[in-house]
Amino acid sequence: MRIFEPHAHMFSRVTDDYERMALSGIRVVLEPAFWLGQNRTSVGTFIDYFDTLLGWERFRSEQNGIWHLSTMGLNPREANDDRVNDAVLEVLPRYLEKDGVVGVGEIGLDDQTAKEEKFFLAQLELARVHDLPVLVHTPHRDKKRGFERCIDLIRDAGFPMERVLLDHGNEETIRVTRDLGCVSGFSIYPNTKMDPPRMVRLIQEYGVEGIVINGACDWGVSDPLSVPKTVLRLEGAGIGDDDIERLVWRNPIDFFAQSGRIDEAALLQRPRQDRSETFDGNSMLRGQDPATA
Amino acid sequence: MRRVRDDPKALAIVLPSLARRAGRAELARGRIRIGEAEIERGAWRTCDVAGHRLIEACAIAHADLDDSVLHELFLHGDFEERVIVLRHVSLLPIQSVTIALLGEVQRTNTAAWFEALVCDNDLLARAVASGRLPRDDAYKILLKGAFVDLRLHRFYGIEHHASAELTRFVTGLATEREAAGRAVWVDTNRLVAHAPIEGSVDRVLRGLEDSRAEYRHASVDGLAVLLATHGDARLNAAARGAFERESDPGLRVRLSELI
Ligand SMILES: [Zn+2]
Description:
The complex is a heterodimer of chains A (293) and B (259).
Chain A: E1 3-5, H1 15-23, E2 26-32, H2 43-54, H3 56-63, E3 67-72, H4 76-79, H5 85-96, E4 101-108, H6 114-129, E5 134-137, H7 143-157, E6 164-166, H8 173-177, E7 183-187, H9 196-206, E8 211-214, H10 226-236, H11 241-256, H12 264-268
Parallel strand pairs in A: 1-2, 2-3, 3-4, 4-5, 5-6, 6-7, 7-8
Helix pairs in contact in A: 2-3, 2-5, 5-6, 6-7, 9-10
Chain B: H1 2-6, H2 11-14, H3 18-22, E1 31-34, E2 37-40, H4 46-61, H5 67-75, H6 79-91, H7 96-107, H8 111-118, H9 123-129, H10 135-147, H11 164-179, H12 188-192, H13 200-207, H14 213-230, H15 233-245, H16 249-258
Antiparallel strand pairs in B: 1-2
The structure holds zinc ion.
């Protein structure tokens, strides 16, 4: 099965993860800009992070045979931080125009503060100006109310629902989002939150229309193979190949293709994987011979 | 265009989308002169031209658009933006941003960026001639090109700035490769003849007997330079000997002109 993983923080993962992902059928990863586990204290570190996602991280991914796309944004957690929030918003327009940037994200709410709401709205406006869909992070705590608040804000802003991916959903939120016209994202984690068996039951009940699944792997306990593992479970449960393909390939592509920056024919080819190539003077070989690495 | 004329900051926002919007089609081949610069038009793509025009329009509208703007566009540019900025700079008179970006491409191994600034144009030769780029720095850039097998003819006119020091650099690379049993830069003998040091003449004459035609070709070119500058009986005899041995028709014609 060909897989588009629409939410993975590869910046925090090792090269072995890329290799295992490629072997499990993942052909494209989308890396949303996010919080790095520790607050940043100046805008310069955001700029370097954004440049890294578009530069070294994309190179590293392609060297492993996986296309790498991104969304750019100020995450809700650091939207609360006055040392960086305004300045990050000021540099975002430049990054939202870069090749391979197919959305604004992750934006949304975390602690559900007034500042988070202010920067969420400001970034919905950026998405409108740059003609991009948005990837919305919803709170892990007090989730249902957070979902509803996100939806209200999007509605009040008049932002088109079909250009919204509401991520980190569960069995409760699907009842709220299924008829909204947005895409509902489900992050599948190893122990907590949504897991593969629950995801299978959810698909059996609601089908695959308007749904995407992801591993949301990052620096914490998380699994870059969540999506392929869920695909196995879905196959085992008798879900048809067409439906699975829709869930893990067609749906995420159709959503992010609204950016006008996705060439599906190109994504169907493998990126070049010449391991002797270097990026900015740095190769992945670390002294190994390209033929054996 | 109007956007960047009004506000130079808009360059950073317009540039990233250029490759998408203007396309990446290569221009027709042909060596042309633009201002002080001589370039191969076929090395440029439609998006490079669009970028050049945009930056130029912005520079005309804002006399205060200084070198730091171009350097910043490079530093935070993605893959294509960097190519576009470097191509633009390759057309400019040598200025501080030229020197700064020569330093940047010398430190990167991303071939596309290196080539965008110093290949298929006369930038490196102009930078040396301007006196703003120390010769040794230019030699290190050329040596890096040799290291990754970029051909000498892509660095227009650099052979006119050859020196014993450059010959030492290039010869050092050759002997290191020979010791490792690896292929030597094919243009070695073509270049060392411009500023021979001890052993250079022998190296060129040995090259005339190489089994590979492209290496013999480089050696014949080297021999031609040596004959014009240091002609003596030994070189004349070598040219005649090479002519008698040579089987490649093109090289035979070339050698017949030398004897
Ligand atoms: Zn995330």
